[in-house]
Amino acid sequence: MKGTVKFFHDRKKYGFITPDDEGEDVFFHVSDLVEEESVSEGDEVEFETEEGDRGPKAVNVEKL
User: Fold this and answer.
1) Dist CA 14 CA 22 (whole Å)
2) Which residues pair with residue 33 across a beta bridge?
3) Which CATH superfamily is domain 2-63 in?
4) Counting C-beta atoms within 10 Å of the first and last residue's C-beta, which end of the chain has fewer, N or C?
5) For residue range 11-48, what is the model confidence (pLDDT) as tens digits?
């Protein structure tokens, strides 16, 4: 699935992705990035989702 980073908090290391299919925003943590590279608001990413403690969570997030 592809999407755009809507929000990313550098200090707390988490953010939200808006899927291209315009579904609900999906939470992600920096530990869910495929590579330890930085992401910023507006970056295009590819990701998978799985059920987390508080709903859907993005995993295997890769910057395009």
Assistant:
1) 20
2) 61
3) Nucleic acid-binding proteins (2.40.50.140)
4) C
5) 999 999 999 987 899 999 999 999 877 899 999 999 99
